[in-house]
Amino acid sequence: MQKSQRPNAGPSAYFRNRQNLLAVTASAALLAGIASANALPLTQQYEVGRSAKPNGAVLASRDKSSSKVKPAAEDVAARAKGILSVVIAIDRQQVTLYSDGHPIARSRVSTGVPGHPTPTGVFSIIQKDRWHRSNIYYNAPMYFMQRVTWSGVAMHQGVVPNSPASHGCIRLPESFARQMWGITKLGVRVIIARSEVTPVPIANDSLFTIKPVPAEPNGEPPARSPETVGGAAGTLEFAQLNAAKRSWTVMDSKPATSGIDAMAYAVPAPRDTTNTGPDLSMAEPRPLKPGPISVFVSRKEGKLFVRKGFEPVFYVPVTFSEPDRPLGTHVFTAVALNDDNTTLRWNVMSMPGAQAAAPAKKSGKGKHVEQPTVPPRLASNAAEALERVTIPPEALARISELMSPGASLIISDQGLGSETGKGTDFIVLTR
Fold first, then answer.
1. What is d(CA 56, CA 260) in angstroms, rounded to the nearest whole number?
2. 174-183 and 66-79 are packed helices; what angle lies between their axes, rounded to 10 degrees?
3. Distance separating alpha carbons of residues 420 and 379, to the nearest angstrom
C-alpha cells in the first residue's frame, strides 16, 4: 500500500493565515499611531520620540521623528512676526506664546513649589543664554535660559512633571525651550499669573497716540533716529549671550537644595531710587536707547514712569479718580499702527487686583466685637482704569513723541518694585 505523503516541512496553512493576520493588524496599528501623533497639538508633538533616562532627565531622541517636528517649529516661527508676549498660568502649569495677541504655541511648564513659589506679575526677558549652567552642584544645566529678574527667576529647560517642582524658575520641556529661545528677543513681555490671562483688543480715547511729525519744506518727512527722543521704534538690539560665552552670575552662587534651580535663590537688591529717571520738569532731550517705550502708572506711588531700552527716561506725578478704589493690574500693548499713522491698535491683559479688606478691630477683654460688614470694592476693568488716570498734558505730549508699535502701558495698584533697575524693563510684582 502506498503511504500518504505529508506536506513539506514548514508552517501549516493555519499558522500562515495567523501570521498574515498579525501583520495586517500591526500595520493598521502603526498607521493609527502615526495619524494620532500628527493630530496632537503642536507642543504635544514635541514629546513624540523622546526617551527618559533612569534618573528622570528627559533627552531628545535622535531618530527620524525629529523630521516631523521641524515643519511645525518652522510654522510657529513664521507666525511669530508680530509683537510677542509670553503668558504663564500657574494653576494650569502652562505657557502660551502670543504674536499680536494671537496664540501661536503652548506647552506645559513646571513652576515653583509652595515653599519657593514663582512670583507673579509683569516681567520681560532681560537676558538670554543658550548654554547657561550653574557654577555649583556640578554645573547643573539651565539650557535655553531666558531671565526675567536679576535676582534669579528665569525660563529654562528642565524636568517638567505634571505639577509644580522648581524653586521659583519656570521649567520648560527641552523641545519647547529650544523653539521659544530661537524666536524671542530681549524685551519680550512676560506675564506670570495665578490663572490664565488672555490678550483682548481694546480701543479707548485715553490710550496714547503718535504725535504727527511736520514735513520738511520739500514735502518729505524729516529723518528720525531711533537713538534720539522721538525716534522710531526699533527692536532691542542688546548683545545676547551666545553659545561660545557662558554667564556666571551671582544668581548661581547661593546654595540651594536643587542645582537646576539654584539661580532662583539670590537675594534681590534693594530698590535703586536714583534709577527712576528725572522728573519731567527736569528732563532734557538726550540720546535714548533703541526700542519701544514702556509706561508704568502706579496708584501706590501716584506717579507715571517712562523707560526706553531698559533705561529710565522720566517720571511725573499723576492723579486718580476714586483714589481708594483698586485699579487692578492691566498691561496694554500697541501692536500696530493704524492707517492714519497717528492712532495705534492695542490689546490688553488684565490681572484684577485683590479686593479691599475691612479694617481689623481688636476685641476688648471679655467683650465680643463683631466685624462690620463692608461690601468688597472690586478692581476696575481695563477701560475704567484708563479713564481714572489723569496725566499732565506735557507728559502726554512727550510720550506721544516716543510712541511706536511695541510700546506698552502698565496700570497697577502696585508700586515700582525693587526688581526694576539697571538693565530691566518695568517689573511689577503682584505677589
1. 13
2. 30
3. 24
- In the DSSP assignment, the letter for residue 131 is T
Nearest CA to 259 out of 120, 115, 110, 132 is that of: 132
C-alpha distances out from residue 422 to 12, 38, 252, 268, 282, Å: 81, 45, 19, 13, 21
In Å, how far are 22, 25, 34 from 29, measured between CA atoms?
10, 6, 9
- Please name the residues in contact with 413: beta carbons below 8 A apart, sequence gap of 6 or more: 298, 299, 300, 326, 327, 328, 329, 353, 379
CA distances from 431 to 258, 266, 332, 386 (A): 23, 17, 20, 23
Per-residue pLDDT of the chain (431 residues; tens, 9 = 90+): 444 444 444 555 555 565 665 555 555 554 444 443 333 344 433 332 233 333 333 333 333 444 444 557 778 899 999 999 999 999 999 999 999 999 999 999 999 999 999 999 999 999 999 999 875 446 778 999 999 999 889 999 999 998 999 989 999 999 999 999 999 999 999 999 999 999 999 999 999 999 886 666 665 655 554 444 433 333 333 333 333 343 333 333 333 334 444 444 444 455 555 568 888 877 777 889 899 999 999 999 999 999 999 999 999 999 999 999 999 999 999 999 999 999 999 999 999 554 444 444 555 555 555 555 555 678 899 999 999 999 999 999 999 999 999 999 999 999 988 899 999 999 999 98
Task: Read off φ and ψ for residue 359, nearest 5 degrees.
Answer: -65, 140
Between the two ends of the chain, the Cα-to-Cα distance in Å is: 99
DSSP single-letter state for residue 412:
E
The answer to whether the CB of 191 falls within 8 A of the CB of 331 is yes
SS3 content of the chain, % helix, strand, coil (to 5): 20, 25, 55
Rounded Cα gap, residues 118 and 88, in angstroms: 10
